[in-house]
């Protein structure tokens, strides 16, 4: 069985492109590595944040639909995105969030990690997770947040479900995850070495179903090294009687999608070709990039997109 190396990216909705860029680049220090459009809705930005090159396991992406209402947190959705920082940086981040007037909870212990919960400008649930392994990964120095304290990427994400059993089956039998124990109402599964983007927590919730809109995750994507690994995962899904879409070319990766039994939209994305395929590392995310089939419409598309600054 092919084992995913963990999360590739997470995609969510936002209510303002400008506010979204400000929060994730200025407050959290992520790099805007790609400014393109939603390929299925070219009148909407698709913004990608991550480490210096948007490595798999670091890429958080948004569709900012201007003025949409906020969504509703609830079952059948991915929630609580965990960002990995060095364990020694938790106190620094707590002071930074306070200094920036970003409301946050007091640190708590979970799975032997220190966690600070907070929300973004649209109410999306975020966490800073202090880990021992994050210090082994080079941080990106954005000039405001020192590299030693920088967010390294995802530690993981939580899924809120009314029934966790069949989702656990998908994780373990199709994607190669393994159980890593329970803590405080969470069942953890890990992939690969369990580090960057390696953890998925399943939380059983009995509340109402969530509602997708601003501040809600649209889908989470799992890593496949290449087309061959992706195809092997699709075959494993078929054995569970779960069908996936045909492969879609997203320019920076190639994807298939499926709805897991708990209701969360899953994607399997290839690591290749990556975000440097159409612009150099030094200038990533500075200009609007379009796929070839949309280039003839560049002027109209650019004119319709809201400003980012």
TrEMBL record:
One Pfam entry name: Glyoxalase
Domain of life: Bacteria
CDD domains: PcpA_C_like
Residues covered by the VOC domain: 6-131, 153-271
Protein name per its UniProtKB record: Glyoxalase family protein
